[in-house]
């Protein structure tokens, strides 16, 4: 009985000290992060790095999506939809490239801290790009061949 009780006491102590250590480590990490970011806030170069990151995010996101769609369009069965998609993707990629270059030039000339000064954050531009992505995706989905259902695939595999 005494040996069994000592196992439970040791287990309780282990769990308790692991919990206390976990809380203490979290507090130390949070205090270190607060101290580190407090120091970084005093450095003006961090503001520039942050703003360049903010300017780059929408361009990187949309350019990546358009390139992925551009590559997938190669395998689309309808040549008409393929050519229309290629034209729209090329136009969108050129627009995003121009907008990003314009935004970077604007940032280095004026160093605006607000996003309202940059072309890639204009509401009409962003909404038009999101709409174009969905529109082309819908058109490509409607003109593609029907995908085989998983149950039909299972039936075909069982017949073989």
Structure description:
The radius of gyration is 28 Å and the shape is flat. Helix content is 83%, strand content 0%. By secondary structure, it is mainly α. It folds into two domains: 1-42; 43-159, no CATH class. Helix 2 runs parallel beside helix 4 (123-142) and helix 3 (79-110) runs antiparallel to helix 4.
Features:
single chain; 160 residues; mainly alpha; 2 domains; 5 helices; 83% helix; flat
In which range does the helix fraction lie? over 70%
What percentage of amino acids are in beta strands?
Answer: under 5%
Shape category:
flat
Radius of gyration: 28 Å
Oligomer: single chain
Q: Which structural category fits the helices and strands?
A: mainly alpha
- Report the sheet with the most strands, covering strand number, pairing sense and barrel closure: none
What series of H and E elements makes up the topology?
HHHHH
Number of helical stretches of at least 4 residues: 5
Question: How many E-type strands?
Answer: 0
Tell me the count of domains.
2
Low-confidence stretches: none
Report, as a whole number of angstroms, the end-to-end distance: 62 Å
Mean pLDDT, as a whole number?
88
